[in-house]
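Review this fold:
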Amino acid sequence: MKWVTRERARVDRIACPWLITRFIDPSPEFLFVPAGGVLAAAERESAIPYDIADVELGHRGRLCSFDAFIERYELADAALAALAEIVRGADTDDRTLTPESAGLYAAATGFQSTSRDDFENMARQFPMYDALYAYCRSGATSRPTPSRVVFVCQHGAAKSVIAAAHFRRVAAARGLTVGAVAAGTEPDAQLAPRAVKGLSGEGLQPSPARPRPVTLYDLATATRVVSFGCDLDAGPAPRLDQWDVPAVSDGYEAARDQIVARVEHLVAELAGGR
């Protein structure tokens, strides 16, 4: 994917590319343009804009763009949450937010002033963020990464969303502390209306509110990956299951019934007979 932001990056606009590269996108391409040209470049290059005003991946209140990425891509990692506080303090006027924030701001300012361009700045700062993340992980050992199943369909708009919603329902009823997320290999801009209407009629909340791509973090941390016919390399760690069910566009009930039956079997398997 392509990602675009303002040039002359310092803190957030280097921290976010690090986060994208390490946890979200296996082959990111970054663009740095003048501040007034980010949205035009995003449209021209089919890129995702970040760290500018009035975009999803930007500042909101006291939270910075790094926080927005963590929320949007469901990065449920305690060390990243700790690192987000450091970045937030360094990127805003609240430099005393963490003991490390003022130091990160000083180092980032130095890298910005001594780098030829934003790409050299990224290359030089990424090892610093690797080190900060390792430091945060050392203090987050008491908060393990939550177990979760990752459901993946092509558009991330229907089957995966239905499966994740029903998995959360069935798992909660069984007392199984395993979560579920939905993602797509080629995500649509919006959830499928038929899936949203069907889930709402069952009292279930579709999540995420807008389709998102499957991420490096999803595949690296999944308890199980379930694919609805996608060509997906889940890597060596999680088990990958392929579920063949009817298209939701051909009828919500038929697709839902087959998905729920498989979800119930999966929950029973993960619960180990509980």
In short: The domain at 148-271 is CATH 3.40.50.2300 (Rossmann fold).
